[in-house]
TrEMBL record:
Residues 56-355 form the PRISE-like Rossmann-fold domain. This is NAD-dependent epimerase/dehydratase. Signal peptide: none annotated. It comes from Mucilaginibacter paludis DSM 18603. InterPro entries: NAD(P)-bd_dom_sf, PRISE-like_Rossmann-fold.
Amino acid sequence: MEQIALVVGASGITGSNLAESLIAKGWITYGLARKPNHDIKDLKPVSADLLNIDSLKAALADVYPTHVYITSWMRNDTEAENIRVNSLMIRNLLNVLSTKHTVQHVALVTGLKHYLGPFEAYAKEGFLPETPLREEHPRLNIENFYYAQEDEVYAAAARDGFTWSIHRPHTVIGKAVGNMMNLGTTLAVYATICKETGRPFIWPGSAAQWNGLSDVTDARVLAEQLIWASTTEAARNEAFNVVNGDVFRWSWLWKQLAAFFGIEAIGYEGTIRPLEKEIANDGPVWKKIAEKYQLKEADLSRLASAWHTDLDLGRPIEVMTDMSKSRKLGFTVFQKTDESFYDLFEQLRKDELIP
């Protein structure tokens, strides 16, 4: 039977990498976004607002997906509003698709805030789980929009009879312009500014993150797990952590990243030095860099999400995840983390986003 994918959030880091992987494997692939991605060859763009059910009905009128991959979410001012908006987006989508009777599997991408708490309570005392993080860890007794998203998928699956999978990556490393949570590109942009201005590459985070073990998720690994789980009988109706498969300490990796750009690395020196503050006045600096090297994006805020990098690197505990659940079921994709960053940096250069 023909496999038809609907990738929701196809312009983001996760969605764009997933769309490319699906197309490479021969899937008919639709990419839904408010501003669809037109850069991926053979991706069928769908423009729709997930909060507007009439917009969805019109946009999906001729789309009959067998597999739905939800990689999109919307940030709001409070967690209560996050819950309302993000659960409504999924409910609207699955209600519109329900009438088509073609959906066999829905995969939802969330993340480690499942274990660490939402933005308002993120990795704070009282919400610090035991690490490595494992899928069977119970939900925190606190509002969390990831739980609300999951519950929408579970309810629709019970109603419509499709299978589901939940995917919980750590920090996702990959390319996307205008993405709100983009640590890899943010560090590439910061390193470029340091190189151009002669400033040192200053570690912005906590002692626990600097000294502790960590892991990250290459967007390509996440894409492979999404496809694997949605096409593997044993993986259905399960939640999975997904990371590269190695662990590292930022005290090691920070120096590797600095060496790639040929700049001086400064590590943790007793206090957190937020990147958001460090690059707060660098908009004009980036504009000059973009003009000098004829880069395609002169707006620093479209490339760097320093607030999110600070959130990740400022955590008061080391954070790494257990991958044994999917490994045991046959998911064996592995990616060396330093090479995830180098591959991204080379891609950013090729696409003329950094010099």
